[in-house]
């Protein structure tokens, strides 16, 4: 209580000193803007976007049969879900007490990604971007290497289908929508770098969901692990 209040007071005092220093550097005609790089709010579930696409036949994963690390682990009964739980619980090299929460989670995700089957690009039509992207990229013929979605009518039909299915997605535990809005990239962005953006951008609103690009998940919505919530 008192210790936390003292710490917060010191943080505000230090921030005030930094802002005052910056203001003292201005010439009287320059404006200083202060803003957060993103918002904050309660979050307790992953929205595994690639699982969403996998269940709709739009993303394919490589088979783990025949050899390689994934196949060897599968023969031992170690599924990606079990591996993910083991990584979270393990004291990797005795480093847990020396690593921050984000570093532990990031290391766990990196290890997990090395053990999962790869995307089967030849049969994949859509894939999630990075978690921060909150978007879906389509593999369009003539635009991306190995693209299989025909440009024009087929491309627009697939976008409309995905927009409708994203908006229809409900959390079975609460019945609430997971996605509050979906946008075509050209409807909200413009400029010379438009082609680098996802074909669809979705908004998770104020819901308790975080976008995930994990390739293997047991379900579309999954409770966040304790490493994220602590």
Give the topology string: H per helix, E per strand.
Answer: HEHHHHEEHEHEEEH
Q: What class do helices, strands and sheet pairing give?
A: alpha+beta
Which range does the strand content fall in? 5-15%
Task: Flag low-confidence runs.
Answer: 64-68
Largest sheet report: 4 strands, antiparallel
What is the overall pLDDT average?
A: 81
Strands side by side in the biggest sheet: 2-3-5-4
| Count, helices | 8
Overall geometry: extended
Task: Specify Rg, calculated over alpha carbons.
Answer: 22 Å
Helix content: 25-40%
Measured between the Cα atoms of the first and last residue, the distance is 18 Å
| Total beta-strand segments | 7
Structure characterization notes:
Helices cover 38% and strands 11% of the residues. The chain has helices spanning 2-24, 49-55, 68-75, 80-89, 101-115, 153-168, 185-188, 226-229; strands spanning 45-48, 126-128, 135-138, 181-184, 200-203, 209-212, 221-223. Strand 2 (126-128) and strand 3 form a beta hairpin. Residues 64-68 have low confidence and may be disordered.
Key terms for this structure?
single chain, 230 residues, 8 helices, 11% strand, 7 strands, alpha+beta, 3-stranded mixed sheet, 4-stranded antiparallel sheet
In a nutshell, what does this entry contain?
This protein is an alpha+beta fold and 230 residues long. It contains eight helices and seven strands, in the order αβααααββαβαβββα.
């Amino acid at each position: 209580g008192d210790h936390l209040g003292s710490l917060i007071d010191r943080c505000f005092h230090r921030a005030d000193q930094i802002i005052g220093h910056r203001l003292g550097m201005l010439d009287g005609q320059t404006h200083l803007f202060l803003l957060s790089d993103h918002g904050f709010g309660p979050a307790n579930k992953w929205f595994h976007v690639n699982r969403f696409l996998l269940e709709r036949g739009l993303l394919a994963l490589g088979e783990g049969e025949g050899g390689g690390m994934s196949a060897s682990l599968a023969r031992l009964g170690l599924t990606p879900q079990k591996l993910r739980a083991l990584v979270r619980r393990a004291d990797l090299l005795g480093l847990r007490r020396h690593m921050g929460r984000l570093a532990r989670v990031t290391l766990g995700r990196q290890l997990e990604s090395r053990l999962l089957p790869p995307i089967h690009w030849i049969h994949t039509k859509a894939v999630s971007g990075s978690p921060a992207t909150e978007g879906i990229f389509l593999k369009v013929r003539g635009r991306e290497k190995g693209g299989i979605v025909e440009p024009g009518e087929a491309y627009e039909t697939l976008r409309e289908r995905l927009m409708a299915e994203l908006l229809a997605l409900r959390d079975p535990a609460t019945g609430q929508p997971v996605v509050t809005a979906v946008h075509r990239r050209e409807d909200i962005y413009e400029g010379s770098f438009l082609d680098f953006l996802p074909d669809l951008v979705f908004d998770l609103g104020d819901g308790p969901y975080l976008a995930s690009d994990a390739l293997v998940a047991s379900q579309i919505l999954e409770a966040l692990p304790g490493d994220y919530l602590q």
